[in-house]
Amino acid sequence: MTDLPDEHDTEDAATLAFYAREAVAYAARRETGGHPHLDRFIARLGPGAAVLELGCGGGHHAQVMLEAGLRVTPTDGSPELAAQAAALLGRPVKVMSFVQLREEKRYDGVWANACLLHAPADALPDIISRVWRALKPGGVFFASFKAGDGPGRDGLGRYYNFPSHEGLEAIFRNSAPWSELTLETGSGGGYDGVERTWLAVWAVAGVAEGQT
Fold first, then answer.
1. 112, exposed or middle or buried, with CB in 10 Å at 0-12, 13-18, 19+?
2. What pTM did the predictor assign?
3. How do residues 186-199 score in pLDDT, each as one tens digit?
4. Measured by CB atoms within 10 angstroms of the end CB, which terminus of the chain is less buried, N or C?
5. What is the largest CA-CA distance in the chain?
6. Which of 111, 210, 143, 132 is nearest to 178 (CA)?
């Protein structure tokens, strides 16, 4: 596959350019039929929990979590999408790439719906380790990916890491000491209208050897 990010890149320029162009239309999309994963995430944490959202897009999931009483810090790597989310939420949204996450033991949960799938494949282990460090022990991490057989682009030019089930599970297990790790398989579409297999990852932060 050609025209993919260099192994040292942490963001894909073509993908960011796509979201810059499409920010208004993308943020205006509304999910139909609810979001069962989000409902489960909220129920596991409960009111008052501190949540970091990576790749908040138009801010719709952050809005649901805030209305449920969670304390949400929404972020996105696209300045244009962050602006759309800020307008919806009535609060600032931080523009932050995944590798700029440097907090430690701050959050009860990290919500990363359909965003880490754009991270360069070689950068995923480091990003997942950063998420683990940002979670309190026992903190819940949700992330979702489009499954495949390796990096590539969709018909809209966006980069995806397209991991296999086995490959993604190995990355998670090797990147951090999770006390629980579950991968669920489902199907669904996306902004490009293409039906694909999706991988939903649920992980609970354990304690590293030697830590208390």
1. buried
2. 0.93
3. 999 889 989 999 99
4. C
5. 48
6. 132
Percentages helix, strand, coil for the chain (3-state, rounded to 5) are 35, 25, 40
**With contact defined as beta carbons under 8 Å apart, do 93 and 113 qualify?**
no
Q: What are phi and psi of 155, to 5 degrees?
A: -70, -10
The CA–CA distances, whole Å, from 90 to 10, 85, 86, 140 equal 29, 8, 6, 26
Residues 46 and 77: their CA atoms lie apart, in Å, by 27
- Whether the pLDDT of residue 4 is over 70: the answer is no
pLDDT, one tens digit per residue, over 88-118 is 999 999 999 999 999 999 999 999 999 999 9
78-97 CB burial, b ≥16 within 10 A, e <16? bebbbbbbbebbeeebebbb
Please count the residues of the chain: 212
Q: What are phi and psi of 83, to 5 degrees?
A: -65, -40
Six token digits for residue 164: 């296999």
pLDDT at 3: 57
- Which residues touch 129 (CB under 8 Å, ≥6 apart)? 175, 176
Which parts of the chain fold into alpha helices (H)? 13-28, 36-45, 60-67, 79-89, 124-134, 165-175
Domains of the chain: 13-205 (3.40.50.150)
- The C-alpha atoms of residue 12 and residue 58 are separated, in whole angstroms, by 19
Strands 71-76 and 50-53 turn out to be parallel
